[in-house]
Amino acid sequence: xxxxxxxxxxxxxxxxxxxxxxxxxxxxxxxxxxxxxxxxxxxxxxxxxxxxxxxxxxxxxxx
Length: 63
Known about the structure:
By secondary structure, the protein is mainly alpha-helical. The chain has helices at 2-13, 20-55.
């Protein structure tokens, strides 16, 4: 019984760092946040360029 308790204590004490699963979850969350930011920024940048291009003269000089 003492050996089992000792093994359980060693198991609970040992922390070898994040596992591959935790890295995968962190990577997935980072990718989701990055995609959301790119989508939002892309929409805003498209709107800005559309407004700027609409405000510019057509470019034909008529000469």
